[in-house]
Write a structure and sequence with these properties.
The protein is α/β, with parallel strands linked by helices. Helix content is 42%, strand content 18%. It starts with a strand and ends with a helix. Bound molecules: pyridoxal-5'-phosphate (PLP).
């Protein structure tokens, strides 16, 4: 059977033998009772990395984001975020469904919003208007093609939040890609955000799970909401152990994914059927397909060669690199692109 090369998402990774060994050896207990040593260790490790007080292990990044929004807001409040942000576009309407909040969508630059836009989006203190109480950023921004914020802009937005009594959340599903690409530290981020969601099931390669970080009292409330959302897991330490392994072993290697992404992007750019490409900053390529192929036809041609990715619109495809993509697979892909 032909070996598939899967660029559909960085969620498709399977645990490596070393990660599996860490999972098999995990010490576990009932985490709803707070008694799973591996979950407790993961939460502590992640919190310490970011210089934050506490962590909460959850089944998904959707859940960590939605819990954060729930804890930071009251029904009727408004959440300020980019128009393409995952919390708005890809979490099933959860901002309204779970938190009874409206969203003020900002027309950002490749998923990134600016302090002046946030300031302009805050509602006046007027009973006709929803109360603006939360700003949420996404770094890297998925629909921005893995674009990274400039940290100085994040600091400016933080100032706006402080001056206007807004909470500040980060959807850091791919934050480690940004940290590696921009040579930033987790602690920088821990200092400015009230809460951070990090995914361990994307670039870091664990089977499932995300960690929500914040102050002690925030995480105490978040733990209650996690139970209400049905996210209290029992012997979750088997998965948490994979998370510990990932935080200790799989961060620096993201640089390899970024090199692979660049190499594939360069090959695509030599083709007449490839149009505009979003700047490649991390592990995602989003580009326009035109002329000889529609986006769907191009993806089908490549699928015949065992190379998988999605057409994300009639004219665009997305490829996502990750730790199960080897150098040989990248070379095969480049060859396949060249042959078209
Ligand atoms: C993947 C992702 C999430 C979380 O998704 P889950 O599948 O629920 O873990 C959140 N934000 C962004 C930007 C993502 O790409």
């Amino acid at each position: 059977m032909q070996q598939l090369i899967d660029f559909r998402s960085d969620t498709v990774t399977k645990p490596s033998p070393a990660m599996q060994e860490a999972m098999f050896k995990a010490k576990v207990g009932d985490d709803v009772f707070g008694e799973d040593p591996s979950v407790n260790e993961l939460e502590l490790l992640a919190a310490e990395m970011f210089g934050m007080e506490s962590g909460l292990f959850c089944p998904s990044g959707t859940m960590t984001n939605q819990i954060a929004i729930k804890v930071h807001t009251q029904p009727g409040d408004e959440v300020i975020c980019d128009k393409m942000s995952h919390i708005y576009q890809y979490e099933g309407g959860g901002i309204a469904f779970n938190s009874l909040c409206s969203s003020k969508l900002i027309d950002g630059d490749r998923g990134r919003i600016k302090a002046e836009q946030v300031l302009a989006a805050i509602n006046p203190d007027d009973i006709h208007k929803p109360l603006s109480t939360l700003v949420s950023l996404e770094n890297t921004a998925n629909r921005g093609g893995g674009s990274c914020y400039n940290f100085t802009e994040i600091q400016k937005i933080k100032e706006v939040c402080l001056q206007n009594n807004l909470k500040f959340h980060l959807d850091g599903a791919r934050l480690f890609n940004a940290l590696v690409a921009k040579k930033e530290t987790p602690k920088q981020y821990g200092e400015v955000f009230d809460s951070i969601s990090i995914c361990l099931s994307k670039g870091l390669g664990i089977p499932a799970g995300s960690v929500l970080l914040g102050k002690k009292d925030f995480i105490k409330k978040a733990r209650r909401v996690r139970k209400v959302f049905g996210g209290g897991m029992r012997q979750a330490g088997f998965i948490a152990a994979a998370g510990i392994y990932a935080l200790q072993n799989n961060i620096d290697r993201l640089a390899i994914d970024h090199q692979h992404t660049q190499a594939i992007a360069n090959a695509l750019l030599t083709k007449d059927f490839v149009g505009e490409m979003l700047p490649v900053e991390t592990n995602i390529v989003i580009c326009e397909i035109k002329g000889r192929f529609s986006a769907k036809e191009f993806s089908e041609k490549m699928k015949e060669k065992g190379i998988l990715f999605f057409a994300i619109s009639p004219t665009q495809i997305r490829m996502v690199l990750h730790l199960d993509i080897t150098k040989e697979m990248v070379e095969k892909t480049i060859q396949a692109i060249k042959e078209l």
